[in-house]
Design a protein that fits this description.
The chain is 34% helix and 24% strand. By secondary structure, it is an alpha/beta fold. It is elongated. α1 (14-25) packs across α8 (238-250), α3 (79-92) runs parallel beside α4 (105-114) and α5 (128-143) runs parallel beside α6. It has a seven-stranded parallel β-sheet, with helices on both faces. Strands 8-9-7-10-11 form a five-stranded mixed β-sheet. The two termini are 26 Å apart. The protein binds NADPH dihydro-nicotinamide-adenine-dinucleotide phosphate (NDP) and the ligand O=C(O)C1=N[C@H](C(=O)O)C[C@H](O)C1. Ligand LZUJQKHR is lined by residues 101, 124-125, 156, 160, 165-167, 215. The ligand O=C(O)C1=N[C@H](C(=O)O)C[C@H](O)C1 binds next to α6. (S)-2,3,4,5-tetrahydrodipicolinate binds at residues 157, 166-167. Keywords: Amino-acid biosynthesis, Cytoplasm, Diaminopimelate biosynthesis, Lysine biosynthesis, NAD, NADP, Oxidoreductase. It is an enzyme of class 1 (oxidoreductase).
């Protein structure tokens, strides 16, 4: 089988560099193109340089032209950029792996619409461990469905711009769905002042930002006399990159459809 030709947008970013490294070292994938925004210091550089490796791919800002050389575009940028790339991929018939977080509901509908024409894997966390945690949370919530207060706590590096993290929100969605609740109606995003007693139907979120924390997530099920905490801690961005490449390989032979990492990992 031919190697999947990968394009990476935001190649100079934290995830972009990790993806370049994983692609250049990976099996069944080949780096076909690398992109960043106009004016980025990454433009004109050899992509391999971003990861201390050898490559013949030069980073450009012309995504439309570069799509001719790839099968799948991997995008960890910003919602606005991702949506622009999505339209280009749709026109070119190129699949997309979307790791960007911070989308509004309308944006997610746009992604779902585009996935009628091209294959899209869209997930707030590509790490295998986090996707296993989603399954554990579903099971835990179904069993501890009464008498347990549920709180989601996440911590990330000081450069992160969205909160709560996409992963924390998905954890909340998984738990809410298992309990037959609607997260939009029961989420509490932080507390301050005289809040009153806790409403047992709510799911609380707390956010920590600091230093170089890669990504920690804990869901607490707090009962009377006991507490269960389910935690995932990332100490490297490589699991996100390796999951993304798995998603890109998963697309081979697919013409369209919206998938997430549960589909890629066979956890559905
Ligand atoms: N799904 C998952 O598994 C994971 C998701 N993420 C998500 O990925 C995203 C990126 O994270 P991270 O790599 O840390 O961020 P960085 O800021 O390090 O990288 C983002 C990259 O995208 C570029 N960029 C910024 N705006 C645009 C735009 N409008 N169009 C195109 N490119 C743009 C940046 O260029 P410049 O620096 O010049 O602005 C940079 O190269 C975030 O949403 C984050 O939450 C992160 C890790 C894992
Ligand atoms: O911005 C990050 O760094 C991360 N973002 C994703 C999120 O918002 O859930 C995934 C991971 O936690 C790292």
């Amino acid at each position: 089988m031919n190697a999947t030709r990968i394009g990476i947008v935001g190649a100079g970013g934290r995830m972009g560099r990790m993806l370049v490294e994983a692609t250049l070292k990976g099996e069944g994938v080949v780096l076909g193109a690398a992109f960043d925004v106009p004016g980025s210091p990454a433009i004109g550089k050899n992509a391999g340089e971003l990861a201390g490796l050898a490559s013949d791919v030069v980073v450009t800002d012309d995504v439309a032209a570069g799509l001719k050389h790839i099968d799948v575009l991997i995008d960890f940028t910003r919602p606005q950029g991702t949506l622009a790339h999505l339209e280009l991929c749709r026109q070119a018939g190129v699949g997309m792996v979307i790791g960007t977080t911070g989308f509004e509901a309308d944006d997610k509908a746009t992604i779902a619409e585009a996935a009628k024409d091209i294959p899209v894997v869209f997930a707030p966390n590509m790490a295998v461990g986090v996707n296993v945690v989603f399954k554990l949370l579903d099971m835990a919530a179904r069993i501890m469905n009464q008498g347990y207060d549920i709180e989601v706590v996440e911590a990330h590096h000081r450069m992160k711009i969205d909160a709560p993290s996409g992963t924390a929100l998905r954890m909340g969605e998984v738990v809410a769905a298992a309990l037959g609740r609607d997260l939009e109606e029961c989420a509490i995003y932080g507390r301050e002042g005289v809040t009153g007693e806790r409403d047992p139907s709510t799911i609380g979120f707390a956010t920590v930002r600091g230093g170089d924390i890669v990504g920690d997530h804990t869901v607490m099920f707090c009962g009377i006399g006991e507490r269960v905490e389910i935690t995932h801690k990332a100490s490297s961005r490589m699991p996100y990159a390796l999951g993304s490449l798995r998603a890109a390989r998963f697309m081979a032979g697919r013409k369209n459809g919206l998938f997430d990492m549960q589909d890629v990992l066979g956890l559905r």
